[in-house]
Amino acid sequence: MTKPAKNGSELFKKLLRDKLTKNEMDDVFFYYKQIIGIIAGVICGIVGIKGILGFLFFLIFQFFLSVALYNKKIDENYYIDNFSIVTSNLSVAIPAFVRREIEFIFNEFNKNKNGLNGNQLLYLLKSIGIYLNNDESASLLEECKTNGNLNLNNFYALMQEFYYDENIGKMLLTALQAHTKEGSKTITFAKLKHLLMTLGTGVKLTEDEIDSFLNVEFNHVKNMEISFDEFIYK
């Protein structure tokens, strides 16, 4: 989505005073969801929710905050379904979340403030669920040996190769496969619910919160199995 015509301060002033139209709320979400992304990234960094589990936490976190704001401040003539609320301006929230999470991950491994060498970088990538093959690992080690330790900006550039839509889908698929039988292409509603309830160590979602999220996304398959493709690409 393009940047709203009204500036952020005008939008939020009206948000505090009045109910909004759908277009005005979409404009608010342009800024609001970037803030949500940053906050979610900070939470993930502080409590240790990494990689794909961090991304799942972000999706659920922005779901609840977006629906709460929309239902409270939208004019009654402009109600839309929860799925549309959640996906509105999601594309601007993801980069904000990813950048903040990447910064926390990097700083966690860069205790001496000298940047990361090749071996540290490979260990970091494995810790967030990114596994390189032998050729990729050798190439990365050689690059670090030639160019020196990676700083934060170098790390941002590297992580852009992993945090794009197709690769996020692959990471989600790997996470689902790790919790199902080998060769399975579906996951039960109950098992997916259990997986979401065990995200991280410092932030725990309640059963009611997980149920609300899943009922919006997959209410029609509550007593059936959810295909990996449906969960990842819905």
TrEMBL record:
Compartment list: Endoplasmic reticulum membrane
Pfam families: EMC6
Top-level taxon of origin: Eukaryota
Protein name: Calmodulin
TM ranges: 35-65
Molecular function terms, GO-annotated: metal ion binding
Main location: endoplasmic reticulum
Lipid bilayer topology: Multi-pass membrane protein
Keyword entries, A-Z: Endoplasmic reticulum, Membrane, Metal-binding, Repeat, Transmembrane, Transmembrane helix
Assigned protein family: Belongs to the EMC6 family.
Source lineage: Eukaryota, Sar, Alveolata, Apicomplexa, Aconoidasida
GO CC annotation: endoplasmic reticulum membrane; myosin II complex
Keyword set includes Membrane: yes
Classification via SUPFAM superfamilies: EF-hand
